[in-house]
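Fold this complex.
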Amino acid sequence: MSTNVISLVSIGAHPTSGRPRRAEQDARAVELGLQLAGDKLQVLHAGDIAEPALRAYLGMGLAQLHVLEQPQGADALPALTEYLRGAGVQVVLTGSQAETGEGSGMLPFLLAENLGWPLVVGLAQVESIDGGVALVLQALPRGQRRRLKVRLPFLATVDNAAPKPRQSAYGPARRGVLQADDVEVVDDELLAVAILQPAKPRPKRLKVIKAKSGADRMKAATAKASGGGGQVLKGLSPEAGAEAILKLLIEEGVVR
Amino acid sequence: MLNTLLPILLFAALGLAVLGALRRVAMWRRGRASKVDLIGGLFAMPKRYMVDLHHVVARDKYIANTHVATAGGFVLAAVLAILVHGFGLQNRILGYALLFASVLMFVGAVFVALRRRNPPARLSKGPWMRLPKSLMAFSVSFFLVTLPVAGILPADFGGWLLAAVLGLGVLWGVSEMFFGMTWGGPMKHAFAGALHLAWHRRAERFGGGRSTGLKPLDLNDPKAPLGVEKPKDFTWNQLLGFDACVQCGKCEAACPAFAAGQPLNPKKLIQDMVVGLAGGTDAKFAGSPYPGKPIGEHGGNPHQPIVNGLVDAETLWSCTTCRACVEECPMMIEHVDAIVDMRRHLTLEKGATPNKGAEVLENLIATDNPGGFAPGGRMNWAADLNLSLLSEKKTTDVLFWVGDGAFDMRNQRTLRAFVKVLKAAKVDFAVLGLEERDSGDVARRLGDEATFQTLARRNIQTLAKYSFKRIVTCDPHSFHVLKNEYGAFDGNYVVQHHSTYMAEIIGAGALNLGQHKGSSVTYHDPCYLGRYNGEYEAPREVLRALGIEIKEMQRSGFRSRCCGGGGGAPITDIPGKQRIPDMRMEDIRETGAELVAVGCPQCTAMLEGVVEPRPLIKDIAELVADALLEDATPGKPSAPAKREPAEVH
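Structure:
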């Protein structure tokens, strides 16, 4: 029995030029989907059907791509929820975070909540799907993997631990069909009142190297900050907890 | 008795030859249509054969003379034999002429046999080892049977036994020479070769011309195949071209990928295409295999995909498109066209560009440069040079095409050196700045014709906005593409490589040059400047103007060995036994030069990638810039060193 898989895709933006492209993580969702379901994979996008970057997904060898047609600024969530509810699908794959638009990374969570399905974050590999249960590997930091048993249907986000997407080729991209589905357009009210501003890189955790010898410096340079120095606070009052946190922030020089 | 036997033998062989020819023609016609002047080509063929082809063959005097004797003798002998022995025109003069022709052919055959006594590795063995004997059988038999015609011997000389022996000799001779010519024997090269010359897909190459730009794919027609998947996707005259191969292996000897032990041998590739067009396996191939790939495991037919049947993909990706094989090929076969055609299918249809290929193509689409750098950084290298932008100036004499080397720190030194030279010569020049995009060279060689055409069209659109007299670039790849490949998209410009331009301004006395100091110098010809565009002289002229006596490498000029950087080879990176730039550096070391002058950012990068200690690598522009005498008006003897005032912009 082949699995019924849908990959959700969005329009990406190249990190240096900002030009539209297939989104890196979404392309990985398509790749994983192709490995799971082959030709039967369905790919879904909510947005503008005229966006040329969509063809880059078709170039991965898809015969067609469904587009829930929506203007910019519309909320993709209700349309996707409704579509997925009626699609009879077992696995829904998506990137962790969009490269354009709000890019909050909330969509998979809200979608899973609406559908009432389990959500696997950071899916690396699907080992088996058998009798309504999937055995999957979840990617954890620094190459660790956690084996999870999930009941179908489920939703999973993929990040850079998932298999690298295959090359998008011109021929299939040109031949593939973009199929428009009319859906009710719901305005994203939250987005409409929100003020967008360019993202700033998240400040890095300070790493003070006090090494004396070369070997120490090497260790400091190669090893990641590990949780060795932390402490677990249990059964504290909120005030005492806040105090402990503030103390750490002052020690680290974050709060002066 | 021979008088009845000979006509039967001759005409039977000729009849079979005609049948074979029809069969062979049907095989070629499986290919796609191609616009060729059929009649004009046939008329032009003798000249193409006698002049253009001979010009290539004559690089090897031994085989050129041998071939003139053998082929000339054979054609003459064959025509006369048909007249004398076929139609029974037992004329004494014709008899003597036939005797002469067969002697001539015999002498040629002896030299063929000598070459084959201890044949170099590049030559194919197998049936080709039989050929000198067949030539001798033909010429000796016809010599002997013609002796009575010339009146030297009585008609019934030798009796039955000799007649039988001669009959067998003639049978062997005409089988190989007539029948074998169209049924796939070694003599096939004469039949297919003659027609290949007549209907060559690059007729511009004849008469001293040059045609090196790749042919565009028609992307507007959704039914046109995107490159070549099966042998029948080649055009019919490409198939014919493959059939013309004589398996001399000159391409194999020149191929840098073969020498580096990468799985490519141009001769085997062409023979595999012959297997593909006729159907079968490569088991009968009697030459050097693709390094690391045993013979006999591949096969195919006209309707089967080539890759992973007939040829492995890595064979196609090993090619650096240096055109050394095409330059050497005495049959003027177009290996590079065929390889790029097959790569196009792999990239455009299969999405199977190996290693970094996919990433580079994606970068080209998203950022207009192969490295994926932010397009806004394209002019960072010239932040302090105050270059004029064409978008402000609108019109200029020289448009300096910077190329993607703008993002490479090593090449930025070259670019800055060239700007220094341009400024010293007070040239009116400007750059496109951020409006410039990758020329599309790498995309095209990697088979991504779609991305190439997009980049080309956008660049042409940009260039159409401005007026300039010529484009000058430091990058032979951009140079080639702008000059030879944009024409198909209505982009026709005067384009020069910076070495050509510098030779011109030095010749005009616009530069006040001192002498190159110190080290001895050799020069490495970039493929895309030399073989692709025939510019061997200008860079040498510039070097001579600097007082440099070039220590030429053994493989220089049109025989220059590739640096390994062309055709996207560093991107697809097919492993071999050694690296191509290391071999080239060995060539450079042999000259004893301490510095190698280059004229290409790719060559610079590849050669500088060779581990030290090794000769220094400098671009010609850098050498010229170093030798500039500052602040002296050209023409006058150099004034006492006066400090150039610091430029304030």
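Chain A has a mean pLDDT of 89.
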